């Protein structure tokens, strides 16, 4: 996963300026929050959350064999994206 340095904020920035962090999350889909220069949390936009929720619901609707086929196909799909 590629992470833009523009999508990284410090924990103190999140506390001091939540609104601008939330706006960044909307722009980038998600931002990564660091505490003591270590990953601490991820803030995702409502739009990104809806997309993830739809994907999770779709996967949960599959029967076991369909789910297995879906999971097996993921590495090929991700390789094409990269």
From TrEMBL:
<protein>
    <recommendedName>
        <fullName>Antitoxin</fullName>
    </recommendedName>
</protein>
<comment type="similarity">
    <text>Belongs to the phD/YefM antitoxin family.</text>
</comment>
<dbReference type="InterPro" id="IPR036165">
    <property type="entry name" value="YefM-like_sf"/>
</dbReference>
<dbReference type="Pfam" id="PF02604">
    <property type="entry name" value="PhdYeFM_antitox"/>
</dbReference>
<dbReference type="InterPro" id="IPR006442">
    <property type="entry name" value="Antitoxin_Phd/YefM"/>
</dbReference>
């Amino acid at each position: 996963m590629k992470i833009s340095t523009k999508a990284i904020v410090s924990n103190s920035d999140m506390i001091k300026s939540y609104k601008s962090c939330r706006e960044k999350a909307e722009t980038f889909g998600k931002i990564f929050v660091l505490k003591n220069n270590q990953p601490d949390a991820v803030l995702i936009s409502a739009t990104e959350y809806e997309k993830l929720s739809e994907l999770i619901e779709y996967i949960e609707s599959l029967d076991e064999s369909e789910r297995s086929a879906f999971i097996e196909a993921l590495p090929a799909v991700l390789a094409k994206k990269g």
